[in-house]
């Protein structure tokens, strides 16, 4: 982070940095966000093609934050990609605004640096990639609370609250959540063994295939996280699907309506002992380290170039703003948690009443519709009722 802040300071014409902060139940978190926009003072960010990248969501995956630094070095032109023309790169980047979250889970990263090398959760033991609202809280038969604790409610964690706010306000065209543990290029869905339908989904698959050919040397798995990932069951040869519930990428695609939402797994050493998390998730020799950063930084710059081409612009223009509306459940969850963070002791009342509040809100809507229907029916009957004189003839 010191290197990134110094880099931003050296290139104020291209890079800016802000720190988002949030607190909940006495737990404080912050997230640094670096924005790249060449000639950023001349244009509105919303007029350009927008890309949001998140690294370091799991503390033990240190290589992901190293990739974030490498990408920022290339964006600032302090490093260059091999075999890429500077003029072509500049022409590509002029059309983009890129927001980079280099370390989403700062508190979890501090635990790892204090030698808890297998820690993937945040500073109070919640897996940030299980704390989102799409299919939140569902537990598979092999559920491991140490690995996958989803928190007490969707968006209970300040980190996920901030990331949701960033995504909804920035409104990117492409989202990539970067992890390590294997080599894979995933699109939705994580919580079920299917991929989305439609033209956008086909374009996502084509883009991932291109990345696999150019940069992953055909080693990467491609498909949905829920349909592609498997793991060996203990004590036998059973190969199980690994479904993940409450993930960021499923939310970004389903609720935030980001047209292209991906999860990339950039490195994994399967032969490592389960207790040797550092070796399992991070390259430990300089040659592999530089190869991983070289291959994957090139992959991201391919996304920067091809992403706008693969995404149908006419479909983007025709999207209804209503597609961006968050569901009632998500709104209430986010609203109540944000209010609970702001008002100290009152937060427990909001947390305990969250489910009841959602139920009452639904009942209120239903009763309002029924009352309106009854009122309109009564008016309709009165309109056609014959008038009867009150005076006897």
From TrEMBL:
Classification via Pfam families: Peptidase_M14
Required co-factors: Zn(2+)
Annotated Peptidase M14 domain residues: 1-329
InterPro entries referenced in this protein's UniProt entry, alphabetically: At5g42320_M14_CPD, Peptidase_M14
Single GO MF descriptor: metallocarboxypeptidase activity
Keywords: Membrane, Transmembrane, Transmembrane helix
Transmembrane segments: 359-376
Transmembrane helix as UniProt keyword: yes
Listed GO CC annotations: extracellular space
Family recorded in the similarity comment: Belongs to the peptidase M14 family.
Name of this protein: Metallocarboxypeptidase ecm14 isoform X3
UniProt source species: Cucurbita moschata (Winter crookneck squash)
């Amino acid at each position: 982070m010191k290197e990134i802040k110094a880099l931003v300071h050296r290139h104020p014409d291209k890079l800016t940095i802000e720190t988002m902060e949030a607190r909940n139940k006495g737990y404080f978190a912050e997230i640094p966000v670096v924005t790249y926009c060449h000639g950023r003072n001349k244009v509105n960010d919303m007029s350009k093609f927008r890309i949001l990248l998140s690294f370091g969501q799991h503390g033990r995956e240190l290589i992901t934050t190293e990739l974030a630094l490498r990408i920022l070095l290339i964006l600032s032109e302090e490093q260059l990609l091999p075999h890429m023309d500077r003029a072509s790169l500049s022409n590509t980047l002029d059309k983009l605004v890129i927001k980079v979250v280099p370390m989403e889970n700062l508190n979890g990263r501090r635990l790892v640096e204090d030698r808890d090398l297998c820690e993937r959760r945040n500073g109070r033991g919640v897996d940030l990639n299980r704390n989102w609202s799409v299919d939140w809280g569902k537990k598979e038969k092999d559920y491991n609370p140490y690995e996958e604790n989803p928190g007490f409610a969707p968006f209970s964690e300040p980190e996920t609250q901030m990331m949701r706010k960033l995504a909804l306000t920035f409104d990117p065209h492409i989202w990539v959540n970067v992890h390590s543990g294997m080599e894979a290029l995933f699109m939705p869905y994580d919580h079920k063994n299917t991929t989305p339908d439609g033209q956008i989904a086909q374009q996502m698959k084509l883009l991932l295939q291109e990345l696999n050919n150019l940069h992953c040397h055909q080693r990467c798995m491609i498909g949905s996280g829920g349909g592609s990932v498997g793991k060996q069951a203990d004590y036998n040869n059973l190969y199980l699907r690994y479904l993940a519930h409450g993930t960021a990428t499923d939310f970004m695609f389903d609720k935030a309506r980001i047209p292209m939402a991906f999860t990339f797994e950039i490195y994994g050493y399967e032969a490592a002992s389960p207790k040797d998390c550092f070796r399992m998730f991070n390259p430990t020799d300089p040659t592999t380290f530089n190869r991983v950063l070289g291959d994957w930084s090139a992959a991201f710059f391919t996304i920067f170039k091809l992403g706008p081409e693969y995404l149908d612009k006419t479909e983007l223009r025709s999207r209804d703003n209503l597609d961006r509306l968050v569901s009632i459940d998500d709104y209430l969850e986010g609203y109540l948690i944000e209010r609970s963070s702001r008002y100290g002791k009152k937060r427990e009342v909001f947390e305990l009443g969250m489910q009841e509040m959602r139920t009452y809100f639904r009942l209120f809507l239903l009763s309002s519709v029924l009352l309106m229907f009854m009122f309109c029916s009564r008016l309709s009957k009165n309109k056609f009722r014959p008038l009867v004189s009150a005076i006897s003839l």
